[in-house]
Structure formats: C-alpha cells, structure tokens
Design brief:
single chain; alpha+beta; eight-stranded mixed β-sheet; 35% strand
Length: 181
C-alpha cells in the first residue's frame, strides 16, 4: 500500500469542443508516470512503514466477516496472560533491509498526513496493523486479522489470515479479503 505509487496513470483528456479524446502529449505523460513509478519500485532506501503497536482482539466487524467463511466458535484466544491487548515489539525488525518499521505514535494521526508528500521521510508510506490470534483447541490453526493503509483514510485493505502449524512451522494457509477503500 505504498501511497507514492497507488495513483493510476494519467487519463487522456477529452476535448468538449470537438467531442473527441485529445491524446496530444499523453504518450510523454505516460512515459513520465512509468519512469517515476519504476524509480520508486527500484529505490533501495528502506521504506518507512507505520505499525499500529496495539495488538487487540479481532473487531466485531471482522468477526462477522469470518463467520461467513469459517466456524469461528471453534477458535479461542489464549487467556493465560489475562489481558485483551498487547504491544507489538518492533525491536526484532530493526535490521530489516527493506522496511523501516516505526510505531505510528511517532507521527501525527494518519488522517492528517499530506498524501502528496512522496519523500518517504516525513510520514510513513503506509501503515499496517494486526490482531491477536485466535487458535483452535489443538493450536494447530489460528485466525488473525490484518490491515494495510496508505494513510489518510483514502486507501486500504483488510484481511483475515488463517495460519496452520505443519511439522512445527507456522505457515499462512489462506488469506481472505474483508474490506477495501
């Protein structure tokens, strides 16, 4: 959800006087659009991403979405620590070569971000969030929700992620889209 590259290519202009599409200069605009987009994709600097550090239970909206796909009553939260929310520890991701994960609390609320700022320095290029995991009784399968946003509430996606423990390793079994804006 890199907000620097989410905009679609520039459209052709419509000349209302001639009632026709005017493609004058459009090829050059498209070429510049693709050059800019490729320059961002090929940029080797670490991409700044905001992470919502509060890890809470799956929302009631998403629970409703899950119920349409899966019998969620077979999954429960681990209640051994007797807390409903946790803080995401980003320390383990400090040395990631591609992404610079930072707590969203370091920045103004994402609805106040200048989405035209494409520098990747002042604001994160997007945000991510995850929920707590609900496990089945044998703790071989789990369900969690995740979301990604470009900031500003203008674009984003939500997912339900089903994970499975096969041979002692957790793997993503299925990703179910739940919302998009």
């Amino acid at each position: 959800m890199d907000r620097r590259i989410i905009l679609p290519p520039p459209p052709t202009r419509f000349n209302s006087e001639t009632n026709r599409v005017d493609t004058t200069g459009h090829h050059a605009e498209l070429k510049e659009y693709w050059r800019y987009r490729d320059s961002i994709k090929n940029d080797k600097t670490r991409i700044l991403l905001g992470v919502y550090a509060d890890v809470e239970k799956i929302s009631s909206f998403e629970t409703e979405m899950i119920d349409r796909q899966i019998n969620i009553s077979a999954y429960t939260y681990d209640i051994s620590k007797e807390t409903d929310s946790y803080k995401f520890n980003l320390k383990a991701f400090e040395n990631n070569k591609k992404f610079n994960f930072q707590n969203t609390l370091k920045y103004p609320h994402e609805k106040n971000w200048n989405l035209n700022d494409t520098s990747n320095l002042r604001f994160p290029v997007g945000t991510i969030s995850v929920s707590r995991i609900q496990f089945n009784k044998t703790k071989t399968r789990g369900i969690l929700s995740a979301g990604a946003s470009c900031g500003g509430g203008r674009c984003g996606r939500g997912f339900i992620i089903i994970i499975e423990n096969k041979s002692g390793k957790w793997k993503i079994a299925e990703v179910i889209p739940t919302w998009e804006s």
